[in-house]
Design a protein that fits this description.
By secondary structure, this protein is α/β, with parallel strands linked by helices. The chain has 3 domains: 46 residues, Transferase, Pyrimidine Nucleoside Phosphorylase, Chain C (Transferase, Pyrimidine Nucleoside Phosphorylase, Chain A, domain 3), CATH 1.20.970.10; 246 residues, 3-Layer(aba) Sandwich (Pyrimidine Nucleoside Phosphorylase, Chain A, domain 2), CATH 3.40.1030; 89 residues, Aldehyde Oxidoreductase, domain 3, CATH 3.90.1170. The chain is built from 17 helices and 13 strands.
C-alpha cells in the first residue's frame, strides 16, 4: 500500500476502504508518512469531502492510534458530555453533579483551555487543592464510589489527531466537516464512555458562527458516534452572547454554584437540564424527557447536586467548604464597574470579544505556556433584550493588574450594540439531533 495511491484516490473523489484509512493513520502517527503527503491528502479531502463511512473509519483509526480508556471496571452505563466551546461555558460544573446525584456514572476526561477562556480543569482548580492528576485506578474508584470524576487527558489519547490538527492548522484545511467532527469524536470515543451528549455552540462566540454549519457538524458527529456504537445526541445552543453572566474561572465556578443553589441564570440551568436529560435517557435511568427533567430539577431543589459537587471536589483534593462559602475561592484585588454611555435596548453582544477581554486580564491562554490567573474576568449585568439607561452598570471587571485592566477596558468598548426599539430575544436552544 502506498500513500501516493491513497492521495490520488481521494483526489479523484473515490472512497477509501477502512484498511486504507487505518494504514494511513498508523503510518503517519509513526512518522513514516511525511507531512507533505498528508497535507496533499488533507487538501484532497477538503475539496472532495469524505463519505459517512470514511468519516467513521477515520475517527476510529485516530481513536485507536493511542490509548483507549477501558471503563469496564466502572459499574453501569457511563456517560460523558462535550461542548464545542464558548464564552462563559461552565455547564460541566453543573450538569455533572446533577447527573451523578441521580446515580449515573460520569467518567470525564477534560482539557485545559487554549484561547480566550479556561477549560473545565482550569475552572475546577479555582477550588484550593483540587487536582485532576490521578491514577487510572483512583479514577475508576471515584466514579464507582461517588459517580463522578474528571481527569486530565492522557498524553497518548488520539495522538494522530494532535499531529493532524497541527498540520491542518498550517495548511488551510481546518474548515472541513469530516475533519472537524472526526477530530472531536476520536477523543471522546477514546475516552471510553457509552453515552456521548454533545453541546454544539453557534454564534459570534462559537467556532461555528453560522447556525447551518453548527447543525451540519452536530449531524456529522452524531452519525460518527452512532457508527462507533455509542449512543450519541447533540444539542445546538446559542453562543451569540456569553452563557450566563460570569466569564473567568473562579467567577464561573461561583455562577455554577449559584445555579446548583437554584439562583443561577435561567438559560444556564435550562441547557444543563436538556444535556442532563439525554444523559439520563442514554443511561436508561429515565424513559422520556419529562421524567428526566423532573428528576434533574429535584436535584437542585433538594440540594443533592450541590452536595455531590462538594463530594466530588473533596474526592479530588479540593476544599469542599468553598462550595458552601464561595468567599473561600480566589478573589481579584481590583474590582471596577463599567457603566453605559448610551441608552436603549441591548441588541447584540460581541461574545468572542468578551472572551478576549477575560484573556487580556489573564483569564485565558494566548499560548500553551501562558499561566492563567484564576481570579480575574468579568460579570455582565446586561444581556440581549435588556433595557439600559445612561450610567447603568453593564459589567464588573475583576483584575489583579492595573495595566491589564486598562487594556481590557479599552477592548470592552464596542462589545455592546444598542437599539432604540425593544429587541426580541433569540431562541436559545436551536435544535436537538439524535
Amino acid at each position: 500500500m502506498r500513500m501516493y495511491d491513497l492521495i490520488m484516490k481521494k483526489r479523484n473523489s473515490e472512497e477509501l476502504s477502512k484498511e486504507e484509512i487505518e494504514y494511513m493513520i498508523q503510518e503517519y502517527t509513526k512518522g513514516l508518512i511525511p507531512d507533505y503527503q498528508m497535507a496533499a491528502f488533507l487538501m484532497a479531502v477538503y475539496f472532495n469531502k469524505m463519505t459517512d463511512k470514511e468519516t467513521v473509519d477515520l475517527t476510529m483509526a485516530m481513536a485507536n492510534s493511542g490509548d483507549i480508556l477501558d471503563l469496564s471496571a466502572i459499574n453501569g452505563i457511563k456517560v460523558d458530555k462535550h461542548s464545542t466551546g464558548g464564552v462563559g461555558d461552565k455547564t460541566s460544573l453543573v450538569v455533572g453533579p446533577m447527573v451523578a446525584a441521580l446515580g449515573v456514572p460520569v467518567a470525564k476526561m477534560s482539557g485545559r483551555g487554549l484561547g480566550h477562556t479556561g477549560g473545565t480543569i482550569d475552572k475546577l482548580e479555582s477550588f484550593p487543592g483540587f487536582s485532576t492528576s490521578m491514577s487510572e485506578e483512583q479514577f475508576f474508584k471515584n466514579v464507582n464510589s461517588i459517580k463522578i470524576a474528571i481527569t486530565g487527558q492522557t498524553g497518548n489519547l488520539a495522538p494522530a489527531d494532535k499531529k493532524l490538527y497541527a498540520l491542518r492548522d498550517v495548511t488551510a484545511t481546518v474548515d472541513n466537516l469530516s475533519l472537524i467532527a472526526s477530530s472531536i469524536m476520536s477523543k471522546k470515543i477514546a475516552a471510553g464512555a457509552d453515552v456521548i451528549v454533545l453541546d454544539v455552540k453557534t454564534g459570534s462566540g462559537a467556532f461555528m458562527k453560522k447556525e447551518e454549519d453548527a447543525f451540519a457538524l452536530a449531524k456529522e458527529m452524531v452519525k460518527i458516534g452512532d457508527g462507533a456504537g455509542r449512543k450519541t445526541v447533540a444539542i445546538v445552543s446559542d453562543m451569540d452572547q456569553p452563557l450566563g453572566y460570569a466569564v473567568g474561572n473562579a467567577l464561573e465556578v461561583i455562577e455554577a454554584i449559584d445555579t446548583l443553589n437554584g439562583k443561577g441564570p435561567s438559560e444556564l440551568l435550562e441547557l444543563c437540564v436538556i444535556l442532563g436529560t439525554y444523559m439520563l435517557i442514554g443511561a436508561e435511568i429515565a424513559t422520556n424527557e419529562a421524567q428526566a427533567r423532573k428528576m434533574l430539577l429535584e436535584t437542585i431543589e433538594n440540594k443533592t447536586a450541590l452536595n455531590k459537587l462538594a463530594e466530588f471536589v473533596e474526592a479530588q483534593g479540593g476544599d469542599k467548604a468553598a462550595v458552601f462559602n464561595t468567599d473561600l475561592l480566589l478573589r481579584a484585588s481590583i474590582i471596577e464597574e463599567i457603566t453605559s454611555s448610551e441608552e436603549g435596548y441591548v441588541e447584540h453582544i460581541e461574545s468572542e470579544e468578551i472572551g478576549i477581554v477575560s484573556m487580556l486580564l489573564g483569564g485565558g491562554r494566548e499560548t500553551k505556556e501562558s499561566k492563567i490567573d484564576l481570579a480575574v474576568g468579568l460579570v455582565l449585568h446586561k444581556k440581549v433584550g435588556d433595557k439600559v439607561n445612561i450610567g447603568d452598570s453593564i459589567a464588573t471587571i475583576y483584575a489583579n493588574d492595573a495595566v491589564k485592566l486598562a487594556t481590557a477596558k479599552k477592548r470592552f468598548n464596542g462589545t455592546y450594540t444598542f437599539s432604540q426599539k425593544p429587541i426580541e430575544k433569540k431562541l436559545f436552544i436551536k435544535g436537538i439531533i439524535k
